[in-house]
Design a protein that fits this description.
Blueprint (H helix, E strand, L loop, with lengths): L1 E6 L2 E2 L9 E4 L1 E7 L5 E7 L1 E5 L4 E5 L2 E6 L2 E7 L2 E5 L4 E12 L6 E10 L4 E6 L2 E4 L2 E4 L2 E5 L4 E11 L4 E10 L4 E13 L5 E12 L4 E5 L2 E5 L4 E5 L2 E4 L4 E4 L3 E5 L2 E5 L2 E4 L4 E4 L3 E5 L2 E5 L1 E5 L4 E12 L4 E12 L5 E4 L5 E5 L24 E2 L1
Antiparallel strand pairs: 1-4, 2-3, 3-6, 4-5, 5-8, 6-7, 7-10, 8-9, 9-11, 10-11, 11-12, 12-13, 12-14, 13-16, 14-15, 15-17, 16-17, 17-18, 18-19, 19-20, 20-21, 20-22, 21-24, 22-23, 23-26, 24-25, 25-28, 26-27, 27-30, 28-29, 29-32, 30-31, 31-33, 32-33, 33-34, 34-35, 34-36, 36-37
Length: 374
């Protein structure tokens, strides 16, 4: 069911070669659903109507889209065309679809085509979604009103205050803020010193309301400022907290160090990285394992805690402790010391060389010496 109200009619002069048109002071178009509840409405302060073609040209149109009789979206534009009393509505110029409620999301563009009976709105000129601090753009967009789903296609970008992600397409769900985007994914995070960190992944999943994005495996994060490369599986970027994390095993290269762990948390604004489980650090000639490790790249400090085992190839040295502290030197290597706690070290003393007389040290003592522990 629908209603079409026009007021303040003034008829243009008739010409046999021209279609009759009428100019109205206002237009008020309403449509109800099969239960008699409002489905949508469109008003305009000025409209010209072509009787023969059933086309109305409107200025400054404003409308409301309802869901189960309740307002769900407000819609507005600079101008528009209404065909067959609302079968098709085309809006142009500063088009905006805004959700009703606090902190509303906004879908905008330069032109849209709305088919109310199919509950579809297509935007083919500069579509954009703004939700909280996230902004999504694409070549085209299709808003499926009955599914609360926005389909963005062609050169799709997700941008917020800290990161710029590019994908081929994305689906966004208006009711929840859930975002899904197949890859490949390419991302850039710009630092204050104008350097850039880069991210690649196979796909994205996230939520624009919580400002959380999950990059799906394989994930690669490169930070040239720290000479660091991270390779992992599902990895989460929390924009609001400035935190990069994964609950799955990863491998990273930081300068001359190779770092492995069962999980990882990077607090980028505070410049620290925590491996909460399965810390495994390797560097030329040395290796360390511990329950957890904390690295602060602001002061280059490192702390390993819990069942710490430090191995050095020279003399086959093995040091065990509950805590080891260290610093990363200018060569990118960690130099460890103990903070006054109990340490157990084991050294393998090499066998003595033969004496000038040809008599080996073994004639006076065993050739194979046991490890020295202290």
């Amino acid at each position: 069911m629908g209603g079409y109200a026009l007021s303040g009619c003034t008829r243009t002069p008739e010409k046999k070669t021209e279609t009759q048109q009428f100019v109205f002071q206002s237009l008020n178009l309403r449509q109800s659903d099969d239960k008699g509840r409002p489905a949508w409405s469109l008003i305009s302060p000025e409209a010209s109507y072509d009787l023969e073609r059933k086309i109305a040209q409107v200025k400054q149109p404003r409308g409301v889209i309802y869901a189960k009789g309740k307002p769900q979206y407000n819609i507005s534009a600079t101008s528009g065309t209404v065909i067959n009393d609302g079968e098709v509505i085309q809006l142009e110029g500063k088009v905006k679809i805004q959700a009703v409620g606090p902190k509303p999301s906004v879908i905008s563009g330069d032109r849209l085509r709305w088919i109310p009976s199919r509950q579809r709105i297509s935007i083919d000129r500069r579509p954009m979604l703004v939700d909280r601090s996230s902004r999504l753009t694409a070549d085209t967009a299709l808003f499926l009103l009955d599914q609360d789903k926005l389909e963005l296609r062609g050169r799709t970008r997700l941008v917020n205050s800290t990161i710029d992600l590019q994908v081929a397409q994305a689906d966004w769900f208006a009711a929840s803020g859930v975002l899904k985007a197949p890859g490949p994914v390419k991302g850039i995070r710009r630092l204050k010193n104008k350097q850039e960190q880069t991210l690649t992944a196979s796909a994205l999943e996230g939520n624009t309301r919580t400002e959380v994005i999950d990059a799906l495996a394989p994930v690669r994060f490169v930070d040239p400022s720290q000479d660091a490369v991270f390779n992992g599986q599902r990895t989460r970027w929390d924009s609001a907290r400035q935190r990069l994390s994964t609950a799955l095993p990863f491998v990273a290269q930081i300068g001359n160090q190779e770092v492995r762990g069962q999980s990882l948390e990077l607090q980028l604004d505070e410049k620290w990285a925590l491996i909460p489980a399965g810390c495994d650090l390797r560097q030329p000639g040395e290796g360390l394992t511990a329950n957890d490790c904390l690295y602060n790249w602001a002061d280059q400090s490192v702390r390993a805690r819990g069942n710490v085992v430090f191995r050095r190839e020279a003399n086959q040295q093995v040091t065990r402790s509950e805590v080891l502290n260290g610093k990363v030197d200018g060569k990118g290597l960690a130099v460890f010391t103990t903070p006054g706690g109990r340490v157990k070290s084991q050294l393998q003393v090499p066998p003595a060389k033969e004496s000038p007389t040809g008599e080996s040290a073994g004639s006076r003592s065993p050739r194979s010496r046991p490890p020295v522990t202290f």
